[in-house]
Structure to design on (119 residues):
């Protein structure tokens, strides 16, 4: 059986069942982390809101569409379009409003695998 491996599974009552499977190994944790994007993604429908609490230092990357961003105790209005990014620089609540269908990548500066929590 070239190109295949035989997988044995124990059935009920202790009987073995052999199954032919393609000889492709499952990815390791390291390989999966290399293939996964280095950020969490949030898709937003037009006019949808997304709240982020205590996201100071969180990097937001607009992957598609356009969003309006505001942060607690910040008078600025920030508009992000596809390809633009912004790092949240305030504690408290930040709100994203989708001006069109949008996709936002979120990456924690300190640890890319741990984005801030959504409100």
């Amino acid at each position: 059986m070239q190109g295949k491996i035989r997988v044995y599974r124990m059935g009920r009552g202790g009987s073995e069942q052999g199954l032919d499977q393609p000889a492709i190994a499952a990815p390791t944790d390291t390989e999966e982390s290399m293939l996964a994007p280095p950020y969490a993604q949030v898709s937003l429908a037009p006019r949808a809101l997304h709240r982020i609490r205590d996201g100071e230092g969180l990097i937001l990357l607009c992957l598609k569409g356009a969003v309006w961003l505001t942060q607690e105790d910040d008078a600025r209005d920030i508009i992000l379009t596809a390809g633009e990014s912004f790092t949240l620089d305030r504690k408290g609540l930040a709100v994203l409003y989708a001006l069109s269908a949008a996709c936002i990548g979120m990456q924690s500066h300190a640890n890319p695998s741990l984005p801030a929590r959504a409100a």
The mean pLDDT is 77. The longest strand covers residues 4-10. The CA atoms of residues 49 and 97 lie 5 Å apart. The chain is about 5% helix and 50% strand.
